[in-house]
Amino acid sequence: MKNVLIVDPPPMLREFLTEKLTSEKIGVEIADGQRDALPKFLSILPDLLIVNVEHSSYDIIDFLEKKQSDPNGKKIPVIMTGPKIDHAEVADLVQYGVIKYFTKPIKFDLFFEAIGRVLRVPFSIDPTPSVLDIHLNHDIIFIEIANGLNHEKITLLKYRLSEIIENNNLHLPKVILMMSSLSLSYVDGLNLELLLTNLTADKRILKRKIKILSLDPFVSDFIDGHPNFEGIEVVKSLSNVVDSFGPELKPQQGLMMDFISDNILSATEEKSHSEMAMRFFSDTGLENSNDELTTGQLKIAIIDSDQQVIKYLKDIAETLGEVTVFTSCKEFIQHINEATYTMAITGMFMPEVTGLDLLKYLVTNHIDLPVIIYSSIIQKEVIMQSLKMGASSYLIKPQSQEVITQKILEIANANRE
Peptide bond preceding 46: is omega within 30 degrees of 0, i.e. cis? Predict the structure, then answer.
């Protein structure tokens, strides 16, 4: 049986690593502090040493030097996790047997690929494409899942929720799960059950405080027919979420869209950052997507007849590159051959030419252009038709700046490969 010793793991990393490794029949030992680490290391002589550092890699150099001085311990490889350090520091760690240094938040798939390579254990990792984003707004935890249900991300979600609750001292958090673009069937039943089980795993999250935004009848029927999830409510729009959460979330004045944007979709600063990333390396094929695509590299067309929507999207897109605005799909089609765009963001229903018409035009004329539909239309048939006709993504209004930015980067990176 292979054994791994983990030194000073924070709670999320400790619990998640223990669950994942033991499920693969790998023994796990935990050492808290350097005094505990050395005797455990020498008594176990594990197949792999995983060391977490909080501030500087050199905080634990004394332990690593003692490890290297032991004839049996010297050959044991080390994987280290910690804050970003420069290349010179990483190079210095090689002499202590460190074969990989992962900057936090850790990319799950790369991390376990490295562990599997050392232990010669082929980890089973769900390859299902999935986007899972999570942020905190005061006492509301907002989760968005798109593309599909990925077993690994759903498992991570359980620990991420507890991490957010603990780090921010939340007593009765509200949870909004948005799955409006997902269409599920009975084959997704096990992952859907795991998702709902993990949403309710932390006892501080009450079922009546969980609202799921979904247009899929399978989701509603699944929850209604499952006694373990009684109290979880499925709603069809974010305004329904505001209504169902009670008077404490009612907007006092102004537009509902502004209220939702400020009080749900926008993230407030968390008291600490996560140890593990909810996005994997394989999601984009780039280690740091925000660093890879810098300002000025993207050329984005924004198409909408609503000036407020245009301004909102333009302000977001201009942080990523050059933006050209069109007030109708017809106007965009007339100019599409005059410039090359990285992608287009368009509304759905506009005079003369709709978003669906635009997608059909692109397919008919063999124009390979990624298109994000940004619309308040929530009918499942329209969403599915858009995706079948080639839309890269369908975002239901309103969405936060963070979600839109990440979606633009995700699609742009995917199309660079």
Answer: no
Which residues are bridge partners to 175 per DSSP? 141, 210
346 membership: H or E segment, kind and range: strand 343-346
Distance CA 102, CA 84 (A): 8
Which stretches within 168-267 are classed as H helix?
189-199, 217-224, 238-244, 256-260
Dig out the tokens for 350 from the structure. 């506009």
| Residue carrying structure tokens 């979709």 | 265
CA 199 to chain centre: 15
Contact (Cβ atoms closer than 8 angstroms) between residue 317 and residue 344: no
Q: How far apart are CA 387 and CA 335, in angstroms?
A: 24
Model confidence pLDDT, tens digit, residues 246-274: 555 555 544 555 656 665 666 666 655 66
> Would you call 32 helix, strand, or coil by DSSP?
coil
Cα distance between residue 330 and residue 322, in whole Å: 21
159 contacts 12 by C-beta, under 8 angstroms: yes
Taking the C-alpha atoms of residue 314 and residue 297, their distance in angstroms, rounded to an integer, is 15
- Rounded to an integer, what distance in angstroms lies between the CA atom of residue 61 and that of residue 134? 35
Instruction: Collect all residues with Cβ–Cβ distance below 8 Å to 63 and sequence separation of at least 6.
Output: 7, 34, 37, 38, 51
| pLDDT tens digits along 306-338 | 999 999 999 888 877 789 999 999 999 988 876
Decide: 339 and 359 in contact? Cβ < 8 Å.
no
